[in-house]
Amino acid sequence: MVIIIGGGVFGLSIGWYLARAGQAVTVVEQEQAGRGATWAAAGMLMPWKLSDSFSEPLFELQRTSRELWPDFAADLSAVTGLDLDYQTGGRFFVAITEQSATRLHRQFEFHQAAGLPVEWLSGEAVRHRAPYLGPKVEAAIFTPLAHHVDNRCLAEALRVALVKTGGLLREQTTVQGVLIEAQRVRGVRLATEVLAGEVVIVAAGAWSGRVEGLPGELPQVQPRKGQTVTLHMDPDQPLVPVQILGPIYLVPRADGRLVIGTTVEREAGFDTRPTAGGVFHILRKALDLIPALESLPIVELSAGLRPTGPDRLPILGPTGIDGLAIATGGHSSGILLAPAVAQAMSHWVTTGQTLASIKAFLP
Each residue of 211-270: pLDDT tens digit? Predict the structure, then answer.
């Protein structure tokens, strides 16, 4: 039996891959699967180096996973019959100051050198292409490589796929500790029983560091709160038809929702309540980009906790304990990385071998 602690996008994806490979797998989730950071995400699928010092192994893992996403989405829809609202319209990266335009042009140069399809646009040129952008926009990059998926549709589809392929999902169930004897994992302790397993994968997101019984020398994951504001557009004539990424992001959904975010808050702990300051920050930045947003109604305020590892790098793969592995720390790339993480972790369980794609992120 493989036991996965955590029913977020990593836990559910790994569980689905293992179940369809014929492994006996149980995903244990303390609340409702897919309703944590996965539910609060934007679902953006684009490998991107934020600076020339950005982790090269992480960039390569992002690229690998992005290439897996079309088949991952198609397979998931085929298994479940559910629409993921997978969109391929590309993205504008925009700058609203001369300083940010200079940084954006450096990003254009190293992504162009990396072979990604990127196009540089002046402020005038991008407003011609996207007339809803405001006069503060100085410059932009457009890339058709940026796709996105409705994170909530994804969460529901993964729950269904796990169960349909033979996996077990135990929600509203807290793992009280991992059982380790003689440097080998034996299972997990629940409130009223012991769940025996030869393999335990900790994929509990921001709560991974709170799982009892883990070796103290493992890297720690911290919560980083991120808030979002969702507006509603006319779905037949959406004000923002494609992704925008600047000081904040704007991601349109097929049903007219426009998800805008986000904050990155270090001191919020595990508090997921939206705040006045966070909402003000997001809307002020959004209106700088697209003034016409001010007339759209607000339909939701939400927040989630990004699981953030040291240096914002993921923690992936086997530990020094036989049968114990970690899969967490996706920070803001969890949904993008899900196919590559599921592939690597299921490969490790079924073969005992660690794929090269995750060796830089071993615990």
Answer: 999 998 888 899 999 999 999 999 999 999 999 999 999 999 999 999 999 999 988 899
How far is Cα 359 from Cα 354, in angstroms, rounded to an integer? 7
Distance CA 173, CA 190 (A): 7
> What tokens were used for 12?
């559910």
Letter string b/e over residues 254-266, b meaning 16 or more CB atoms within 10 A of that residue's CB = eebbbbbbbbebe
Q: Are the CB atoms for 213 and 179 separated by under 8 Å?
A: yes
Where the chain has pLDDT below 70, the residues are none
- Number of helices (H) and strands (E) in the chain: give both, helices first: 8, 19
Cis before 262 (ω within 30): yes
Q: Which of 290, 292, 308, 305 is nearest to 246 (CA)?
A: 290
Per residue in 74-94, pLDDT tens?
999 999 999 999 999 999 999
Task: Note whether 261 and 196 are within 8 A (CB).
Answer: no
Q: Count Cβ atoms below 10 Å from residue 359 Cβ, excluding itself.
A: 12
User: Please, are residues 169 and 84 in contact by the beta-carbon 8 Å criterion?
Assistant: no
What's this model's pTM, rounded to 2 decimal places? 0.97
Q: Which pLDDT score, from 0 to 100, does residue 266 have?
A: 84
Q: What per-residue confidence (pLDDT) applies to 145?
A: 95
Q: Of 168, 175, 205, 245, which is closest to residue 8 (Cα–Cα)? A: 205
Q: Which pLDDT score is estimated for 217? A: 84
Q: Would you give the distance in Å from CA 174 to the centre of its chain?
A: 23
CA–CA separation, 10 and 117 (whole Å): 28
- Six-digit token pair at 79? 């298994």
Cβ neighbours of residue 99 under 8 Å, at least 6 residues apart?
none
Going 33 to 34 to 35 to 37, the CA torsion angle's sign is positive
Q: In whole angstroms, what is the distance from residue 68 CA to residue 66 CA? A: 5
DSSP-derived letter for residue 322 is B
CA distances 108 to 92, 113, 118, 138, 262, Å, are 12, 8, 7, 14, 23
Distance CA 8, CA 306 (A): 11
Write down the H helix ranges in the chain: 9-20, 37-40, 56-80, 98-113, 123-129, 151-164, 276-289, 334-351
